[in-house]
Amino acid sequence: MTCRWIDICPLRKLEQEGQISQRWKKEYCESKNSWRNCKRFRLEGKNIPHPDNMLPDGTIKEKE
Ligand code: SF4
């Protein structure tokens, strides 16, 4: 089972823009279970706002 947010996650836009690689998608979003460890997923579950450019490990991806 992939992450429930996989299609609407803001990371998809960053991937399309070439700002991040497919690594996060492979390691978290499409994984069987690792999406549970995604910081975005956890904050979403607690209804805590988080920036669109926050990566699954909690780091912020600055625009290049
Ligand atoms: S970044 Fe996190 S919340 Fe977004 S789709 Fe991937 S695992 Fe889900």
Structural overview:
This protein has a domain at 11-45. The model has no long low-confidence stretch (mean pLDDT 97). It has helices at residues 11-16, 23-29, 39-45. 31% of the residues lie in helices and 0% in strands. 16% of the residues are buried. With 64 residues, the protein is mainly α. It starts with 10 loop residues before the first helix and ends in a 19-residue tail after the last helix. It is globular, with a radius of gyration of 11 Å. It binds iron/sulfur cluster. Residues 3, 5-6, 9, 11, 28-29, 35, 38, 40-41, 56 line the site of iron/sulfur cluster.
Quick tags:
64 residues; single chain
Structural class: mainly alpha
Number of extended strands: 0
Order of helices and strands: HHH
Helix content: 25-40%
What's the pLDDT, averaged over the residues?
97
Bound molecules: iron/sulfur cluster
The count of helical stretches stands at: 3
Strand content: under 5%
List low-pLDDT spans.
none
Q: How would a crystallographer describe the biggest sheet? A: none
Our measurement of the CA-to-CA distance between the termini, rounded to an integer number of angstroms, reads 33 Å
Give the gist of this structure.
With 64 residues, the chain is mainly alpha-helical.
